[in-house]
Design goal:
Layout lengths: L11 H10 L26 H10 L8 H8 L3 H13 L3 E6 L4 E5 L4
Antiparallel strand pairs: 1-2
Length: about 110
């Protein structure tokens, strides 16, 4: 067992000075503000250009999902979900698989 010598008695001022001279230990930790996600400003209703793009470009996509429409056309998710049945009705796209969580469609090919 190792014996240590008697503990050095310091005054409050000496302790404060030692704490301030400690460098990095003396500074208070600064918390980061955290990562903030950029707010996307997606359309809630179609304008003429976006609607024309929906009818012209979307039927040419190989894979069509709600998230693909949101990403490429910059529209809201609810608008994208309503657009898909509209395109099926017009015969521009056809369903590949319909799961409760994810519905996948593709372009309508002539068979």
């Amino acid at each position: 067992m190792v014996r240590q010598g008697p503990k050095e008695i310091k005054s409050k001022e000496a302790k404060m000075k030692a704490a301030m001279a400690g460098g990095a230990k003396g500074k208070k930790k600064k918390w980061s503000k955290g990562k903030t996600k950029e707010k996307v400003n997606n359309l809630m209703l179609y304008d003429k250009n976006t609607y024309d793009k929906l009818l012209a470009e979307v039927p040419k996509y190989k894979m069509i999902t709600t998230s693909v429409l949101v990403d490429r056309l910059r529209i809201s998710g609810s608008l994208a979900r309503k657009s898909i049945p509209h395109l099926i009705e017009k015969g521009l796209i056809r369903p590949v698989t319909a799961h409760s969580k994810q519905k996948i469609y593709t372009r309508a090919t002539k068979e």
